[in-house]
Design goal:
It is built from 15 helices and 55 strands. The structure holds beta-D-glucopyranose.
């Protein structure tokens, strides 16, 4: 009997004992959230939220037979007087994303709710804790404030490549409050990025707010509960404001939407007094401002300049004399740009890297290594002499002579400066920029001081989502790969999903987003992060009558074309989110947009029926040089093949989405379209032997055809053989770029070629995942050979060392190495199907916070036995697949299978036993 088994027996006995104490008492629901994962939000964006809860883990609770939600205007009304909504008892197992159907909710409204459920035996739970949400300002006409700021365009500075830069602004307003404050809300946003203070105190630790949306359509607003920041009498509100994405250099342009118009803030402070009166302080023409503050310049690509000589003590408090500051200019709110509460969490400081090492010191400078390629800002604490300038440079890796490799930043200067006002130790963290770096060089510090590792720390920043999953195994390099994937994800989830975080790009490339979405949903709770970005995608798409989805979102490139494999993000990502979360809202929101994207393909069909002629980035960054010599970064997979494959795939997904939404006509229509495109695809690109008709064979051509199900069954079998041939020709290396890589494991898996996939994944030579790890990667690289010990850096300037696309293998690591997948949307049914490979691994383990609670799958090979621990959360079921097992050699929690309650054999094929499991914890053992 193993220790694990003993543990299970003891905990089961304990639970049984507890539950017999009171047969009918059922524990209350937990983990209450609204919509895409919000817990008690203030300033919420949606007046029609959904409600979700989790059933507690208990012997008594297998599933939910009914639920009741009550919603009220005050806490004391619950549960008996739900004056907004009483769902009444609903016979349903639905415990996620239940739609609010009560009275209409308005801006600023605070709402309280609670829920209870009935278990499988019809026993009612206690009511949950009372949760709440408060709406933000939902409409433009909720705002009395005006956009306010200084005209910084007129005094602009020439920056990199003569791009103009605005001086950051310091804005303030003193005001008096007549009595004590009961509560206060600050509604605020900016065209630019801001940090706001009340009476000298920083209102929040949010970073680079309001974040990045297509500002010509929508600007997100923030809401802060500032009840504790105010006092009777004199108060002051003060804002630091810089260009950010709105008015700064981003992509190839300067200030896209506003033709280099100056940054502005919009804020409305609404205060409720003890005497019941209300006072509202708004941004208007009475505000004062200056550009003579310490942050002299700040840009996303180029860094920040801070001059302590310009510090203005107490500038953000009520006592400050601003009589020589300028009055601001104002602009009224336009109807065309929607002001909407931010629909996902802001960027925040997430982690401080303190394990720093000094790499080298010379007479002028010192180089520090943070031992992890990261994104964010440094915190420096350095001795300086008055008027000296500390220069802070960054790089992701070093050149062989120990100097900085910065060619891959391209034109991004990515350098911060600090000018000291006196002798002594300065502390500095830049505010309105971010960098992608592992190494940092300081120069300009006090030469009498000896550089010390404690001078530097790294503050890693990303959007504020929680961890959702864990993956680990017995193999160090596989674990390093998981670490590289998750760092790469966090580093590039900086308010929007970006391609890279360091060079003069950092844009929301749709193709990269499309390939990484499933892996990201395993690792982080990025439901709201993605749905927020999809809204931006739809807004940019709406600029194009033909349904075109731009290459990047927000579309600062003002793209003229759509690209196959990139614009499909409009269809693929909503579908992935639905499968991971079970939330139908994302499909409802994205449905028209998805259809329009398919319409775009249709509009590009010219001479050959169903074969669109359009733009494509191809199988971007295919590892081997193009055999035609023409492919370049786009690889050798023919463009038309890629267009047609994705056209068919998106049409297919639209038909599936239509089916979920109950749109039967559309379901049939798009299914038919998909079938027709598929047969046109086969005729055009494949011969009767399942071989590509074009001269050049690529892995990706076969992968797309097979994975998107575009071939007749008999052709498919033949095509699979050609795919294997291609892989063999590459000596079992992948030959795929961004589009082919995520589907390679799925196709080989479906073909039963698991060992081959393991072989490819565990390759150490170029091109492979472990190759870059062998060269020292701590994040995913843009190219498999962005750097090699033998040849140095890839000579291409497009050579990011933090690009998440190839991290898409992470999905397969969860689903098949450790073995957890969502079999029915949102893990209502879970598949536990690990495929251990004894050549490379002794163990693997993953856990996922599903919408129903935590699920996990953990296996280890001990001597000649395969040992699997599984946890299945309440209100779900699971299929557990045990490879190489028979009924007779299987033990469940130490007993023979037939004695196991809650676990039944469904069938056994090809040596794999398929079991149906109810919620619970299981230990399953089989002989190898
Ligand atoms: C980006 C990519 C992107 C590509 C489009 C690059 O500059 O970094 O990741 O998908 O352009 O081809």
């Amino acid at each position: 009997m193993t220790i694990r088994y003993l543990f299970i027996v003891t905990s089961t006995l304990l639970l049984t004992f507890l539950s017999t104490c009171d047969k009918t008492r059922v524990l209350k629901p937990e983990g209450l959230i609204i919509s895409e994962g919000f817990k008690n939000p203030v300033g919420f964006y949606n007046s029609k939220p959904t409600f979700s809860w989790i059933l507690p883990v208990s012997e008594q609770i297998k599933s939910q037979s009914a639920y009741q939600i009550v919603v009220a205007t005050s806490k004391s009304n619950l549960p008996d007087n739900p004056d907004l909504w009483d769902s009444e008892k609903q016979e349903s197992s639905k415990s996620t994303f239940v739609k609010y159907q009560g009275k209409e909710l308005k801006s600023r409204q605070k709402v309280f709710w609670q829920v209870r459920f009935w278990n499988q035996d019809e026993n009612a739970s206690e009511w949950s804790e009372i949760n709440s949400f408060e709406l933000g300002l939902l409409n433009n006409n909720d705002w009395q404030a005006k956009w306010a700021g200084l005209d910084t365009a007129k005094d602009s500075i020439k920056g990199v490549r003569k791009f103009l830069m605005h001086r950051p602004q310091y804005l303030r307003k003193g005001f008096e409050l007549s009595s004590d404050v009961v509560s206060a809300r600050l509604y605020i946003t900016a065209k630019g990025v801001f940090d706001v203070y009340l009476n000298g105190k920083d209102v929040s630790d949010d970073v680079m707010t309001p974040g990045w949306t297509p500002y010509n359509h929508r600007i997100e607003t923030l809401t802060y509960d500032v009840s504790d920041f105010l006092e009777t009498g004199n108060n002051a509100i003060a804002v630091e404001l810089a260009s950010g994405w709105h008015s700064g250099r981003i992509s190839r342009r300067t200030a896209l939407y506003d033709n280099f118009l100056s940054p502005k803030i919009l804020c409305q402070l609404e205060v409720v007094m003890k005497d019941g009166s209300k006072q509202t302080i708004i941004s208007d023409e009475s505000w004062k401002g200056t550009t003579n503050g310490p942050i002299r310049l700040a840009g996303i690509y180029d860094g920040e300049v801070y001059d302590a000589n310009f510090e203005m003590p107490n500038w953000n408090t009520a006592t400050f004399d601003d009589s020589n500051w300028e009055l601001v200019e104002v602009e009224t709110i336009s109807k065309d740009v929607k002001l909407a509460p931010k629909r996902h969490l802001t960027v925040k400081n997430q982690l401080v890297l303190t394990d720093v090492e000094i790499v080298s010191v010379d007479e002028n400078s010192a180089v520090f290594n943070l031992k992890q390629n990261m994104v964010g800002v440094p915190k420096v604490k350095v001795p300086m002499k008055k008027d000296d300038t500390l220069k802070i440079r960054f790089s992701e890796m070093l050149l062989s002579d120990g100097t900085f490799y910065t060619k891959n930043y391209r034109s991004a200067k990515s350098t911060d400066y600090y000018i000291a006002v006196s002798d002594g130790i300065i502390e500095y963290t830049p505010k309105f920029t971010f960098h992608g770096f592992q190494f940092l060089e300081l120069s300009g510090y006090d030469k009498n001081a000896k550089p010390d590792a404690s001078w530097v720390q790294g503050i890693a920043q990303h959007s504020n989502f929680e961890k959702n999953g864990t993956f680990t195994s017995s193999h160090d390099k596989l674990n390093q790969l998981q670490s590289n994937i998750t760092w790469g994800l966090r580093d590039n989830f900086f308010d929007i999903p970006t391609d890279c975080p360091q060079r003069d790009e950092r844009l929301g490339w749709t193709g990269d987003a499309q390939v990484i979405a499933p892996t990201s949903l395993f690792n982080y709770d990025v439901h709201a992060f993605w749905t927020a970005w999809l809204q931006s995608l739809r807004e940019n798409q709406s600029e194009h009558k033909d349904g075109m989805v731009p290459f990047i979102v927000p579309d600062v490139l003002q793209t003229k074309n759509g690209s196959s494999g990139w614009g499909d993000a409009a269809v693929i990502i909503p579908w992935d989110i639905y499968n991971a979360t079970g939330d139908i809202t994302v499909l409802e929101e994205s449905y028209e947009s998805a259809k329009k994207w398919v319409g775009y393909y249709q509009s590009k069909v010219k001479d050959k029926t169903y074969i669109p002629i359009m733009h494509s980035f191809g199988d971007w960054l295919q590892p081997y040089p193009s055999k035609t010599g023409k492919g370049g970064n786009r690889g050798d997979t023919p463009k038309e093949l890629i267009h047609t494959a994705f056209f068919a795939h998106s049409a297919h997904l639209v038909s599936k989405i239509a089916s979920v939404l109950g749109k039967t006509e559309d379901e049939k229509k798009y299914k038919k379209l998909y079938n027709t495109i598929a047969s046109a695809f086969e005729n055009e690109f494949f011969d009767g032997n399942g071989r590509l008709t074009g001269e050049i064979q690529t892995q990706t051509s076969y992968l797309l055809a097979i994975h998107f199900d575009l071939l007749k069954p008999e052709t498919k079998i033949k095509a699979q053989k050609h795919l294997l041939e291609e892989i063999k020709n590459a000596d079992y290396h992948l030959g795929t770029g961004f589009l082919g890589t995520p589907i390679l494991p799925k196709v080989l898996d479906d073909m039963g070629e698991i060992d081959m996939m393991y072989k490819i994944l565990f390759k150490e030579t170029y091109p492979s995942w472990f190759y870059s790890i062998n060269q020292g990667a701590t994040t995913m690289w843009e190219r498999w050979n962005s750097y090699s010990k033998a040849d140095g850096y890839n000579p291409q300037p497009m050579n990011s060392l933090n690009h998440y696309a190839y991290g898409a293998i992470g999905e397969w690591m969860y689903e098949r190495i450790a073995g957890i997948a969502s079999l029915e949307p949102g893990y209502k049914k879970i598949r536990i199907a690990p495929i251990p490979n004894t050549e490379f691994l002794r163990s693997a383990s993953a856990s996922v916070k599903t919408p129903y609670g935590k699920a996990s799958s953990s296996w280890v090979i001990e001597d000649d036995s395969f040992n699997l621990d599984v946890v299945i959360p309440p209100n779900t079921t699971a299929e557990i697949h045990i490879p190489n097992a028979t009924q007779n050699n299987l033990l469940v929690n130490g007993n023979a299978l037939k004695e196991a309650s809650n676990l039944k054999l469904i069938r056994s094929d090809n040596n794999t036993l398929k079991l149906l499991a109810e919620p619970g914890s299981y230990n399953i053992q089989t002989k190898l």
